[in-house]
């Protein structure tokens, strides 16, 4: 049974005129009649007697009318509750973000947001997967995206900032390994399984092989600090690590951006709108930190 057909049935039960229902829904008289015929066929029951005075309900029609009115009221009640909830700053908000952003940029700010809006329940997942939003596994995503890349077309995207990055290693690692020549012993640590990613090819040492894979920034950072290899990191992160230094001849680059992504289905939800505005304000205040590489 099609709920749209039931809506036409209820309207016709109240007016008794297919023409009046057609005007109400902006349809033709014949379309309303056809939809009622379709409903009767699906139920195997005659719901109306047709005569010159209009449509009059049968006993089966009266029985359906009773249940249909209850269903209509229940749907209206649910709509009011859900729309009222979305109009208020209350409810769950699922944020997905890389660990570097969550721990090194946002945590104090998220604590402030939680204090200001105690009825919004933050669910935070550490992830770099771009498909979380497409599968409705998250409401809002904050992501590093290569400069010039385009966010997925099915999402609403807002650029938050450029990000300065550079190349780092421990002084001990650089003293123990060669980066050029016939016998290269140094190694890059990868962010992905790609053997020679673009950032390696554009580095001063494109012939250094790339090994291993780390899918989270802080894990990657610890591996470089432990002497497993050399790495590429945001300057706001690695410049604060006393164990690391910038690799000789490496110059900071603005080759990544931070983006705020959300699903268009949720654009009218008040708590998400407020949180997105909050994030925009936070990143606007951190521009010098994110792009400064002096």
Shape: elongated
- Low-pLDDT runs of 5+ residues are none
Which CATH class of the largest domain? Answer: Alpha Beta
Supply the CATH architecture of the largest domain. 3-Layer(aba) Sandwich
Q: How many whole angstroms does the radius of gyration measure?
A: 30 Å
Furnish the topology, listing elements before pairings.
Blueprint: H1 3-15, H2 18-25, H3 29-43, E1 48-51, E2 54-57, H4 59-86, E3 91-97, H5 99-116, E4 120-126, E5 140-146, E6 156-169, H6 171-176, E7 188-190, H7 198-201, E8 210-213, H8 217-225, E9 231-234, H9 235-238, E10 245-246, E11 253-262, H10 270-285, H11 287-291
Parallel strand pairs: 3-4, 3-5, 7-8
Antiparallel strand pairs: 1-2, 5-11, 6-9, 6-10, 6-11
Helix pairs in contact: 1-3, 1-4, 2-3
